[in-house]
Amino acid sequence: MFPAMESDKAWFGFQRVETSEKPHLVRDVFERVAGRYDLMNDLMSGGIHRLWKGALIDWLAPRPGQFLLDVAGGTGDIAQRFLARTGASGRAVVCDLTPAMLVVGRDRAIDRGIVSGINWVAGDAQSLPLADRSVDAYTIAFGLRNVAEIDKALAEARRVLKPGGRFLCLEFSQVVLPQLKQLYDLYSFQVLPWMGRIVAGDRDAYLYLVESIRRFPPQQELIDRMTAAGLERASYRNLSSGIAALHSAWRI
Description:
The structure is a single chain. This protein is of the alpha/beta class. It has helices at residues 22-33, 37-45, 48-60, 77-86, 99-111, 150-160, 178-200, 203-215, 219-228, and strands at 9-12, 15-18, 67-71, 91-96, 118-122, 135-141, 161-172, 232-239, 244-250. The chain has a 7-stranded mixed β-sheet, with helices on both faces. A two-stranded antiparallel ribbon has the order 1-2. A hairpin with a 2-residue loop joins β1 and β2. α2 (37-45) packs antiparallel against α7 and α7 runs antiparallel to α8. The protein is globular, with a radius of gyration of 17 Å.
C-alpha cells in the first residue's frame, strides 16, 4: 500500500498544503525562475542533466512519424531532442502548467529555427487537454514530483497513450550508495539554495525543489504506482547511482 495522506492534502516541499492549492504554488515557483531555469539546471548538475535526458531519448528510441506528448516540458528540450530523431514527420506537444516556462521554450525554439512540428500548450498533468489514445509516447522529465496527485497524472498518461504507446519518466530519485547520499544531502541542502539565491535570485524556490525531491516516491514505489494506474511492463534504470532514475512502462 502507498503512504496514507488526507485526500485533501498534498506535499509542497516539506509542507502540507491543500491539494487544490499546490498547482498555484508550483506555478508561482516556476514563473519566478523561468528565465534562468536551464542555466540553473546546468549549474546544479554540472551539465549531467543533459546526459540523463539523452539517456531518456535513447531508451525511447523515437521513430519517424511518431507523436510525442512531453508533460511539464517547459523549455522544450526533450521535445526538441525527440524531433531531431524523428525528422520532419515527427510531432510533439509540450504541455506545461506554467505559461512563463512555455514562453521561454517557444522563444528559444524559434531562435533555433524550430517552428514546425511542435506545439506549446498550457495544461495540468492531472487533466490533459488531449484526446484518449492519441499519442505514441508520453515523457515527463523532472516534473512528476511537482504534481499534486501523482496517481491521477499516471492515469492520465495511460488515457492519452495509444495501445502500444510508451511512458517514460525521468526524475530525481533515491541515491543507492550510502557514502554518496551523505555528500548529496549536504550539497542539496547547503549549496543548491545558496546557488539559487546567487544565480536566480530566489533561494526559496530552489529549497522547494530540493525538498520536493526528498518527498518523491522511491524507485520501486513509483513502479507499483505506475502498475496500479494500468501501465504495464514497468521497469526502471538508475542514473548516477540513483541521483536520478528513468522509469518506463507501456499501455498494452
